[in-house]
């Protein structure tokens, strides 16, 4: 970790020397000398940082001192740049040009003199620290004597494949538990009336035993899904907020929108949930319940009716399980046995399918696994670590010896294994892992979200010809490979992949981030202990709102001068308090105000010249101050989801650093001049077409994702010409203005001679399409396709079924206005998800033999004229999930378990939600 900090300081020094060479002649030698000193420290740390971490107190002290001097160097450089920028933009009244130049020169000399003194002091400290390394014999800890070996080359990943093929995590030893729990859930019908009551079955055990994984496995069992008319999985977690949990229940069980929830008081929300669940046989999974109070809040919305409803609860606390239901026995999850532990370790360390461990490694491997005490989390994390090592006796033995294993009990046994896995991370991954501490427990984290933050923080280093985003994707997957984070599918209807971090691993990232002054996550609003030189502050949840108002910062505060990142999530604060809080934060790189509800930004936001990331989603900000254009280092701007978000014309002055512009119904004022462009912009989301397009779009040569709104026929041809010049574009959303046509050529490889055809992979088209291109002219690169209000008269499945790479297809709201569709034989060879929603004319649908052989998820909604489920559905054995909603009662009757005419078509599907 210290090596990453020093690396960033070296990079900053190099950039400063290059950019300000004219102004820095007097201190140039000092800057070069300090950079050289830090480079030597960096080289030493790269070889020995991890072994130093495992060494004695002298070594730890040395690393801490190196980290602090690197932080100081960063502070000096960033402060100098800030002051110079402020001095250059400051107007000096109506003085003569000669006097103005004199004042400016004097001011610059003062700043330069101050910089020289500060650099000299830091240089002196750096030299003393370097001398101490030899003086106290710290070299002996590193080098070849290190008992840890690190592989620092990143793995090569098929990025598209990991996004599209999310498989269930490997679990061993749970089969017998699943059978027992399934029986407890579904046998009530065949028992006496006593068993018809709403029973709470509690899975109890220490952290890391796999309680959550077991609960999910039980609920996805094909015998369980059809038994309940309503199911919901709700994460409760240690930080319990009653309103938040109720909203999760409403969203998961009722699909209630955020807008609707905001309109309801807490009591009204409870009433709505109770009313919805009355008369339904429901199954609720309440994951990670810590306190009896949490259960008491939740139970009030779960009707107690004699219909066999069930609650499956996971908890570490026996008292919680007993309190929830004294009549039901607790299901106490036990540690894995020796054989099961070895099997799980080999699946992680060797290969998921071919897990045969070489015989010469078996004895060392089993010795390592024995230290895990049968805890699945410890085993998979250790296996993930070993999977990054060479399969040699020497390398495995180094891992075994790299920690003083202690015979500890319970969760204490996991801690040294998690610590070991962190210290074995290559230097470039450590800050990326620690950054997960900014997220609340159990949150679903999108790849785009974390990657953009990593890049803004400077954690991602350039590599060959790849973009920083592509390098960061590899970082993310390496953390998955090491089992420090896990892949989940938050919402299969979207087919999008999200990530989660286990709460024990999250605890590790939070505690380690605090120790290293990397990040601080206050436990409550009264906490004052923000350590000196803390670089980042994360405030999560409504109870942290008062934290902003309670901070009495001054411009001389060490905390305010060091702060680089402020992340506030889901906390209502007064605009004046937030503006005051930000006023003295001069050196911010990341500012995320998501869900704070503030109404405006400081008018002088432009002074934050180091800002790389500005997140404003779920705020009440209507317009941006004109000074936003001065944020020339800004990489990511996320606008609130308000109507008519206006970007000032100064946005064109932001130049080459801006990479992602996201929002909702964004309009851009003006148009760029001849010498203005945004050449590195990769994402432009939900932007209204306007005059800017004709002179601006074709200059966005790095654009990968583009979402266009309100496109008229007038702009269609110029747009197609511009799109043909964007070689990197692979994701396009085109929404036609009312009464206008969406060009079918967006789906075609056939273009006019002067126009290059598009190689789009993800396409969303909203508006009338006269006719799809012929199948032999369709763009074969398309993997995701959404059609909405297309009003196609010819069956689209006949043509689309021939797209060999199509994996996600959504037909929404009159996308097709005919009465009959057919999936032809062998059609849709790669399709994984199919959504048919609002096809109000559809009456008949047929699936021919060997069509959709890889389909996993199907959603059928509001197709009220459809006579029945398609013949041939029973042949799709790959189908894992079927959701049917907003269909007529007579149609629903056809799906009744064992009785409905269509039950035989769907009985093989593990998850059926009606």
TrEMBL record:
Residues 5-90 form the Disease resistance N-terminal domain. Pfam families: LRR_14, NB-ARC, Rx_N, WHD_DRP. Keywords: Leucine-rich repeat, Nucleotide-binding, Plant defense, Repeat. InterPro entries: Apaf_helical, Disease_R_plants, LRR_dom_sf, LRR_R13L4/SHOC2-like, NB-ARC, P-loop_NTPase, RX-like_CC, Rx_N. Residues 178-352 form the NB-ARC domain. Residues 438-508 form the Disease resistance protein winged helix domain. Residues 580-886 form the Disease resistance R13L4/SHOC-2-like LRR domain. One of its GO terms (biological process) is defense response to bacterium. Belongs to the disease resistance NB-LRR family. This is Disease resistance protein. It comes from Dioscorea zingiberensis. The lineage of its organism: Eukaryota, Viridiplantae, Streptophyta, Embryophyta, Tracheophyta.
């Amino acid at each position: 970790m210290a090596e990453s900090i020093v690396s960033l300081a070296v990079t900053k020094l190099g950039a400063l020397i290059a950019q300000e060479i004219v102004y820095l002649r007097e201190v140039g030698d000092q800057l070069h000398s300090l950079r050289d000193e830090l480079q030597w420290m960096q080289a030493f740390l790269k070889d020995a940082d991890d072994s130093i971490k495992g060494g004695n107190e002298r070594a730890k002290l040395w690393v801490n001192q190196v980290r602090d001097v690197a932080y100081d160097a960063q502070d000096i450089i960033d402060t100098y740049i800030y002051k110079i920028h402020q001095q250059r933009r400051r107007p000096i009244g109506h003085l003569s040009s000669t006097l103005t130049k004199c004042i400016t020169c004097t001011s610059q000399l003062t700043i330069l003199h101050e910089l020289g003194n500060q650099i000299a002091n830091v240089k002196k400290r750096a030299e003393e620290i370097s001398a101490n390394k030899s003086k106290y014999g710290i070299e002996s800890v590193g080098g070849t004597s290190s008992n840890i070996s690190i592989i620092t080359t990143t793995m090569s990943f098929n990025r598209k494949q990991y996004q599209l093929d999310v498989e269930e995590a490997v679990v061993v030893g749970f089969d017998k538990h699943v059978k027992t729990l399934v029986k407890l859930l579904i046998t009530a019908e065949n028992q006496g009336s006593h068993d018809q009551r709403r029973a709470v079955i509690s899975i109890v055990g220490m952290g890391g035993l796999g309680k959550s994984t077991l609960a999910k496995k039980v609920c996805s069992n094909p015998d369980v899904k059809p038994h309940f008319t309503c199911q919901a999985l709700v994460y409760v977690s240690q930080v319990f907020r009653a309103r938040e949990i109720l909203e999760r229940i409403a969203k998961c069980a009722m699909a209630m929108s955020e807008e609707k929830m905001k309109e309801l008081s807490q009591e009204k929300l409870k009433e709505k949930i109770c009313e919805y669940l009355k008369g339904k046989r429901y199954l609720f999974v309440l994951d990670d319940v810590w306190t009896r109070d949490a259960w008491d809040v939740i139970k009030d919305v779960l009707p107690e009716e004699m219909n066999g409803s069930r609650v499956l609860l996971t908890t570490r606390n026996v008292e919680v399980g007993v309190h929830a239901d004294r009549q039901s026995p607790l299901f106490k999850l036990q540690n894995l046995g020796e054989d099961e532990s070895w099997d799980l370790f080999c699946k992680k360390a060797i290969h998921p399918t071919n897990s045969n461990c070489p015989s010469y490694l078996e004895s060392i491997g089993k010795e390592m696994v024995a230290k895990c005490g049968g805890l699945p989390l410890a085993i998979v994390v250790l296996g993930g670590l070993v999977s990054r090592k060479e399969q040699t006796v020497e390398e495995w033995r180094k891992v075994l010896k790299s920690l003083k294993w202690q015979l500890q009990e319970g969760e204490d046994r996991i801690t040294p294994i998690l610590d070991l896995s962190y210290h074995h991370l290559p230097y470039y991954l450590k800050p990326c892992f620690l950054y997960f501490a900014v997220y609340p427990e159990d949150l679903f984290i999108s790849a785009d979200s974390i990657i953009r933050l990593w890049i803004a923080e400077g954690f991602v280093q350039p590599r060959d010809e790849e973009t920083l985003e592509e390098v960061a994707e590899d970082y993310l997957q390496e953390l998955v490979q090491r089992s420090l984070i896990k892949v989940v599918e938050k919402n299969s209807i979207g087919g999008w992949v999200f990530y989660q971090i286990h709460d024990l691993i999250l605890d590790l990232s939070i505690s380690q981030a605090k120790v290293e002054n990397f990040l601080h996550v206050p436990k409550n609003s009264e906490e004052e202990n923000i350590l000196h030189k803390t670089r980042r502050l994360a405030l999560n949840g409504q109870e942290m709102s008062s934290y902003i108002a309670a901070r009495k910062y001054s411009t001389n505060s060490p905390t305010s001068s060091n702060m680089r990142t402020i992340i506030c999530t889901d906390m209502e604060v007064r605009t004046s308090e937030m503006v005051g809080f930000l006023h003295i934060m001069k050196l911010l790189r990341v500012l995320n105000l998501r869900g704070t509800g503030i109404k405006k930004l400081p008018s002088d936001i432009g002074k934050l010249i180091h800002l790389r990331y500005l997140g404003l989603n779920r705020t009440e900000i209507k317009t941006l101050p004109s000074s936003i254009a001065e944020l020339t280092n800004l990489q990511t701007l996320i606008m609130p989801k308000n109507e008519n978000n206006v970007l000032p014309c100064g946005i064109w002055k932001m130049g080459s650093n801006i990479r992602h512009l996201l929002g909702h119904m964004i309009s851009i004022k003006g148009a760029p001049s001849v010498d203005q462009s945004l050449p590195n912009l990769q994402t432009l989301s939900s932007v209204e077409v306007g005059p800017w397009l004709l002179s601006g779009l074709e200059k966005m040569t790095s654009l990968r994702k583009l979402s266009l709104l309100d496109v008229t026929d007038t702009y269609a041809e110029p747009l197609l010409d511009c799109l043909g010049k964007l070689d990197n574009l692979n994701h396009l959303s085109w929404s036609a203005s009312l009464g206008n046509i969406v060009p079918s050529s967006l789906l075609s490889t056939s273009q006019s001679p002067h126009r290059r055809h598009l190689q789009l992979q993800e396409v969303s088209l909203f508006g009338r399409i006269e006719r799809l291109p012929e199948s032999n002219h369709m763009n074969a690169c398309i993997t995701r396709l959404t059609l909405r209000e297309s009003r196609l008269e010819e069956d689209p499945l006949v043509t689309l079924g021939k797209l060999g790479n199509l994996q996600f297809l959504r037909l929404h709201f009159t996308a097709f206005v005919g009465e009959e569709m057919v999936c032809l034989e062998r059609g849709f060879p790669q399709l994984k998800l199919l959504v048919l929603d609002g096809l109000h004319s559809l009456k008949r649908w047929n699936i021919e033999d060997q069509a959709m052989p890889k389909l996993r998820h199907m959603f059928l909604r509001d197709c009220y004229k459809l006579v029945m489920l398609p013949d041939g559905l029973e042949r799709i054995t790959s189908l894992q999930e079927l959701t049917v909603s907003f269909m007529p009662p007579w149609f629903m009757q056809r799906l009744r378990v064992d009785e409905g005419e269509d039950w035989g078509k769907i009985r093989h599907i593990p998850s059926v939600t009606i």
